[in-house]
Design brief:
This protein is mainly alpha-helical. It has ten helices and two strands.
Length: about 210
């Protein structure tokens, strides 16, 4: 068997274990989901688990890193789809709508991902070994995504009232809050409702295009 085949198979195993973990974390919380249950759901043995992850904390970090990578890739793709000629012709309201489309493209699309992400962050609060790696990951991703979105803001001539990292924190907070509120009411999060809230938030955070000098 070639090394490429082994690597691909190992990658598939890790992905299935992480998918199983996300489902169980959303359903039972990180503390409530055992390694045995994760293996059973993924249809692998404990040996397969421990050949890929040192322990459950290592799995949690892998899940967080995977989410961060997907968020960055989605942001890059969304930003790359914006054309210079389109941006120059847009009004401030249209630019805000465009910026929201970029932001929403990077967010968890399923309730399961949303809840699992919150459970992982709560777990990191309780698990000192995960705090610094998660904080470092958040800082790195905030810088990279902030640079990408900051470039878009500069290209359209808008100005943020807050530093980009603070603006992103507020957008994430509103997005998560609206999603959790919907789930508490037994509803699936509504993108249109979120979009309205986020639109009003963005309007309060940006000023119009700078006057030509």
């Amino acid at each position: 068997m070639s090394e490429t085949t082994v690597t691909a198979r190992r990658s598939q195993t890790r992905e299935r274990l992480m998918d199983a973990a996300v489902a169980l974390f959303a359903a039972k919380g990180v503390l409530g989901a055992s390694v045995e249950e994760i293996c059973e759901r993924a249809e692998f043995t404990r040996g397969a688990f421990y050949s890929n992850f040192a322990d459950k904390d290592d799995l949690c970090l892998a899940v967080l890193n995977r989410h961060a990578l997907r968020e960055l890739e989605a942001t890059e793709k969304a930003v790359a789809s914006i054309g210079e000629d389109v941006l120059c012709a847009r009004t401030i309201d249209e630019v805000i709508e465009l910026a929201l489309s970029v932001f929403l493209a990077t967010q968890p699309r399923s309730s399961e991902d949303l809840v699992a992400g919150m459970e992982l962050r709560l777990y990191a609060v309780r698990a000192p070994a995960l705090r610094q790696p998660l904080l470092a990951l958040n800082e790195r991703m905030g810088e990279q995504i902030g640079d990408l979105l900051g470039g878009v803001v500069d290209r359209v001539g808008l100005r943020l009232q807050l530093p980009m990292e603070e603006a992103l924190d507020l957008l994430h907070a509103v997005y998560l809050h609206s999603g959790i509120n919907a789930l508490l009411q037994g509803l699936e999060p509504d993108d249109e409702s979120r979009r309205r809230q986020l639109t009003e938030l963005l309007k309060s955070l940006v000023t119009d295009r700078e006057e030509p000098r």
